[in-house]
Design a protein that fits this description.
- By secondary structure, the protein is of the alpha/beta class.
- The chain has a single domain, classed as Lambda Exonuclease, Chain A.
- It has seven helices and six strands; from the N terminus they run αβααβββαββααα.
- Strands 1, 2, 3, 4, 5 and 6 form a six-stranded mixed sheet that branches.
- The relative contact order is 0.15.
């Protein structure tokens, strides 16, 4: 039926626009500098369109994420870090409760906790916070898991410098169209399911 096709296109068209947000070439998101930076490069330069299953997972995760965030008054705390090259690191921490920064993740497994903690530490370093809390919502068990994250003043400086260095490399790779200078995550499960794995492997061959 034509109307069903139109309804389907409306749903997935809007989900795709939300998933493939247009990125400012002068700015990079904190989330793009976590996990696999090379994947973020491919997403910028020549992205592979998401399939319907990916869009459904995106909708489910985003909906649950936004619903839980309604529990907090101070939500989407903006972060902007200027770089010497004139570019900007930009991001939004999920929430701030008193002086504790909150990062919420909707997950099926907890095996990526070190990467999620690193992302929260980037936010904490950018905002000058020493206390954070990573909150997991498990979609299978419907449980909430709370992980405290702390950062000393000395660690905060180190983490912020690390974030800026990664951003500098990312922008340089975009300008020179050379992703081989960027590290890959080298996480077996993540690499195995990555839509860019063939392209990434080819870039490694070129580099060697």
């Amino acid at each position: 039926m034509p109307e069903i096709a139109h309804i389907r296109e409306t749903i997935f068209g809007n989900l795709k626009r939300g998933y493939e947000r247009v990125k400012d070439p002068a700015k990079v998101g904190v989330s793009e500098l976590c996990w696999c930076v090379r994947r973020s490069y491919y997403n910028r330069m020549n992205p592979i369109p998401p399939d319907e299953k990916t869009l459904i997972r995106f909708m489910r995760g985003r909906s649950l994420h936004d619903l839980i965030l309604l529990c907090f008054d101070n939500r989407e705390v903006k972060i902007e870090i200027p770089l010497e090259c004139g570019k900007i690191i930009r991001g939004y921490a999920d929430a701030l409760v008193n002086d504790t920064l909150i990062e919420l993740k909707t997950v099926k497994t907890y095996k990526w906790d070190s990467e999620h903690i690193q992302q929260l530490k980037y936010y904490m370093a950018a905002l000058g916070k020493t206390s954070g809390c990573l909150i997991y919502h498990n979609v299978f068990s419907d449980e909430l898991k709370f992980i405290p994250v702390n950062l000393t003043d000395g660690e905060r400086h180190t983490v912020l410098c690390q974030l800026k260095n990664i951003a500098d490399d990312f922008f340089y790779a975009l300008e020179t169209m050379n992703p081989s200078i960027l590290p890959t995550a080298y996480i077996p499960d993540l690499c195995k399911s990555c839509v860019y794995k063939i392209r990434c492997k080819g870039d490694d061959i070129v580099r060697t």
